[in-house]
Amino acid sequence: MKNHRILTIVLALITTPFAASAQVHGLSKEGATPTPPILTGVHDRDAAELADVLAIPTPVPLGPADLLNEYEQAMASTAQGFNAEVSQIAEAVQQKKITEDQGEYLCKEAYQLAMMQFQVLSSLHDMLAEQMSQTPDAPQPENPPPAAGLNGSGYHNDVHTVRANEKAI
User: Fold this and answer.
1) Residue 69, CB half-sphere, CA atoms under 13 Å: how many?
2) Confidence (pTM)
3) What is the pLDDT of residues 79-114, one digit of tens each?
4) Which terminus, N or C, of the chain has the lesser number of Cβ atoms within 10 Å?
5) Nearest CA to 19 among 45, 38, 43?
6) Other CB atoms closer than 10 Å to residue 81's CB: what's the count?
7) What are phi and psi of 124, to 5 degrees?
8) Which residues pair with 156 in a beta bridge?
């Protein structure tokens, strides 16, 4: 499946300039006879697959702050999913579709699953936050330039100014 997608993307990258130039060329000759399409071997199914592949936005790399936000959103989603599942179970018990014991068992299962998901997401969030707090804000240069007035040996060169008409030794 992955090879098929890669082949489709490569085919799309190769054929797109030709298709675009054919459309521009066809539009410039409005009164002329229509030219046959360049992509005669492309079927409707292939064209639909190409359109699907090209419609997928390219992923943008996420930074640590974005990942923290995603972890927080996933934790909130886990809590909302658990709430919705318990509500469905309670409704099924009220409508006598399942017994109270079955409802209790299903609620316990849903709770355990939600807690495991929440704990994993919370741990990932905490580890990333800890990494971010230990990472320096800006990288320090490896060989900082020497301070003004110092040469490499630590000797301090004082610069003396001499005014006009003064003698200095």
Assistant:
1) 5
2) 0.46
3) 999 999 999 999 999 999 999 999 999 999 999 999
4) C
5) 38
6) 14
7) -60, -40
8) 150
Using the Cα atoms of residue 109, residue 110, residue 116 and residue 119 in order, give the sign of their dihedral. Answer: negative
The pair of structure tokens assigned to 21 is 């130039």
Q: Residue 148 carries which side chain, given as an amino acid letter?
A: A
Question: Could you write out the DSSP letters of every residue in the chain?
Answer: -HHHHHHHHHHHHHHHHHHHHHHHHHHH-SSSPPPPPS-TT--HHHHHHHHHHHHSPPPPPPPHHHHHHHHHHHHHHHHHHHHHHHHHHHHHHHTTSS-HHHHHHHHHHHHHHHHHHHHHHHHHHHHHHHHHHHS-SSPPPSSPPPPTTB-TTS-B-------TT----
What distance in Å separates the CA atoms of residue 16 and residue 35, rounded to the nearest whole number? 17
Tens of pLDDT, residue by residue over 44-82, are 777 778 777 777 777 777 788 888 899 999 999 999 999
